[in-house]
């Protein structure tokens, strides 16, 4: 019986992929790859394992209602699963702000058997990169993808703002107000990785694959 | 020049380790392994790569002031680095509620060059296991290791309570009050993995390697 795997391939460094992801990709007949700004990155991470596979690129344009596209992708998966396993590759972790989640919901409606395989999230890799803890004992972590909530900043020692290319000035002002040190990490672990800690430099950057990590004390 | 690597080995499944972790362990001369309840798990994950290495077990008893032990471990690392690389293995991710963070601070005091390598966190693996998102667009994630803060529960769509063997009844009451569905995941991805969704069953469990994930709607 063939299966649909949603597989995280990590943040960018081809070594930051799990053995499980590599093995599933090697054994799959079909690779589903979301066609987007990040597409070349995800495919690039796994390029050594793609030989002989049918690669199916799926288009889910950002900021559009893709409901029908997800439904059609699920139907295509149903058809392809008759002849072999599918691995859907996703940058970072499939359960963390990923388009995979919308596709998963459609697959479930069709009663397709799915297994999700976690990947290294960008924020986890970024914390390691700057050698700062996400949390030690009794601390709270807050993860978001837009301007953080003040009530939450008050109660958390670490905040990670993902996909951070908008409102950076407002975000940094908030972090300063609530006593956070901050780090901007662009394309963590990849060839174009950049770490910044100065506000005036950070606000000049404009890349969707960026994170700000705030850390109290 | 030798280097000290703090390396996450993932949550339990030996396939949920990164290629980078495997390669660093294979090339290291020394493996530092915290001796604790989780010790056998971390060493078990990497057991295939340990041949010919000197394994140094470090004791950091839970709930005790280990400041001197961390300092001594850092001094031992300084000595051993004269003859080869050290990999400190840590279950899950080294920057997420790990003892590695305390050791890292001592290594930094001695100006020892360190590199931290992220691992799959238990909460990431648990979300994949239950096929529930940690977040979709515009949602907030809250991660903690004790009874969650009410103000934060109000503003977040997902909450992950790690190392959850205490106050489970109080935690579940709170999650119900704030409109969360909940899942209890013990030893995710390991041989003793268990997923529960009924309060009366969850409160009977008593294992430190457990997570509760709450998810609104």
What topology does this entry show?
Two copies of one chain form a homodimer.
Chain A: E1 4-8, H1 19-27, E2 30-35, H2 39-45, E3 54-59, H3 67-80, E4 86-90, H4 100-109, E5 114-117, H5 122-129, E6 141-144, H6 150-155, E7 158-161, H7 168-177, E8 180-186, E9 194-196, H8 199-202, E10 210-216
Parallel strand pairs in A: 1-4, 1-5, 2-3, 2-4, 6-7
Antiparallel strand pairs in A: 7-10, 8-9, 8-10
Helix pairs in contact in A: 3-4
How many DSSP-defined strands of chain A?
10
Largest interface, counted with CB-CB under 8 A?
A: A-B, 56 and 55 residues
Sheet/helix structural class of chain A: alpha/beta
Could you describe the largest sheet of chain A, including whether it forms a barrel?
5 strands, parallel
Q: Could you tell me the mean pLDDT of chain A?
A: 95
Show unreliable segments of chain A.
none
Broad shape of chain A: elongated
* Helical run tally of chain A: 8
The ordered string of helix (H) and strand (E) elements of chain A is EHEHEHEHEHEHEHEEHE
- Report the helical percentage of chain A: 25-40%
Please, what is the oligomeric state? Answer: homodimer
Beta-strand percentage range of chain A: 15-25%
Looking across the biggest beta sheet of chain A, what order are the strands in? 3-2-4-1-5
Kindly provide the radius of gyration of chain A, computed on alpha-carbon positions and rounded to a whole number of angstroms.
18 Å
Question: Span from first to last CA of chain A?
Answer: 53 Å
């Amino acid at each position: 019986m063939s299966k649909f795997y949603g597989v995280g391939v990590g943040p960018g460094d081809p070594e930051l992929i799990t053995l499980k992801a590599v093995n599933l990709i090697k054994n799959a007949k079909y690779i589903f790859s979301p066609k987007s700004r990040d597409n070349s990155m995800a495919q690039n991470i796994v390029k050594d394992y793609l030989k002989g596979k049918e690669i199916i690129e799926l288009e889910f344009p950002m900021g559009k209602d893709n409901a029908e596209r997800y439904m059609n992708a699920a139907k295509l998966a149903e058809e392809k699963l008759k002849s072999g396993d599918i691995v859907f590759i996703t940058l970072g972790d499939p359960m963390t702000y990923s388009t995979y989640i919308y596709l998963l919901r459609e697959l479930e409606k069709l009663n397709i058997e799915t297994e999700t395989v976690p990947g290294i999230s960008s924020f986890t890799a970024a914390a390691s990169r700057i050698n700062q803890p996400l949390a030690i004992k009794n601390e709270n972590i807050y993860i978001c993808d837009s301007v953080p909530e003040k009530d939450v900043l008050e109660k958390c020692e670490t905040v990670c703002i993902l996909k951070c290319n908008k409102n950076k000035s407002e975000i940094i002002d908030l972090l300063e107000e609530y006593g956070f040190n901050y780090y901007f990490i662009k394309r963590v672990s990849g060839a174009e990785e950049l770490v910044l800690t100065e506000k005036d430099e950070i606000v000049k950057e404009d890349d969707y694959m960026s994170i700000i990590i705030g850390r109290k004390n």
